[in-house]
Amino acid sequence: MKKFAFLAAAAAVCAAIATPATAQFAKPEQAIKYRQAGMALIGSHFGRMAPVAKKEAPFDAAAIAKNVEVLSVLATLPWAGFAPGTEGGDTKAEAWSDAKGFKQAEDDFLAAMGKLKTAADSGDFDAFRVAFGNVGKSCKICHDAYRKDN
Fold this sequence. Notes:
mainly alpha; Four Helix Bundle (Hemerythrin (Met), subunit A); 6 helices; 71% helix
């Protein structure tokens, strides 16, 4: 009986993982709002560090590391809101018609974020500044290709 319960639980977990991202949202508009909210939070936390990277504000390694820790979580969130059937909002149709390129832009952004986390954790200002710039570049590349002009 225990083996059956374990197998049933494992099957339920597998089914949940295999469910398409669109199932997370009752309506496409919810996915659009979700991804826009996620991107807004990413922009807010990223923007907080810009004066430091530009040497307009003092470098506080602990504050930067804490902000990057939050940003590292936020960076993973919006992508579920880009599932097929959720077209619209500020996103160009190319995000869906060029799904491979869009996925590559996502992967590049997340890789740059990983390097920013490593740099922030090191407490080295120069490493932080370079990694911060690379994250910004990955944002710009994606926005230029897949975001509508506002």
